[in-house]
Amino acid sequence: GRIGVVAVxxxxxxxxxxxxxxxxxxxxxxxxxxxxAAASLQKGRGALQDMDxxxxxxxxxxxxxxxRAVRDIVPTLRQAIATAQSGTPGPVFVxxxxxxxxxxxxxxxxxxxxxxxxxxxxxxxxxxxxxxxRNLFAGAWEPQEVTPLPVSMPLATEDEVG
Length: 162
Hints:
Elements: E1 4-8, H1 12-15, H2 18-26, E2 31-37, H3 53-58, E3 63-66, H4 73-85, E4 91-97, H5 98-101, H6 104-111, H7 119-137, H8 158-161
Parallel strand pairs: 1-2, 2-4, 3-4
């Protein structure tokens, strides 16, 4: 009656869970599969272990979700847990890009670019990267709802028992 939680790395870590997730689906077991992913800016650009993980799990899971900003981690996990446990229980996949998981100063250092951009194109790229960073962490330090989720145990009606 409890949810199982699995955390794996991107790419091969994710693909190695396919059989287990299918078994969880067939057994109607609530499972939360948390997977790393390439940084958001590098998705679809040949980054290490970058693949379309969401598509892989769409047919195996009740939901396949991706966190796009730090502020969305808690709401996405709450939604995923509720989905896995609601109705007919089953697995849910949540993708967490690495830039969403790292602290601000680490991500800023990695994507900050040069501080003295040259030319118009350099200034546009610098503006884009700084705007991306601000959006990625916007609202990250705001209080989030962290109370336990309500547990719903559906009971059979008399017609279903009889």
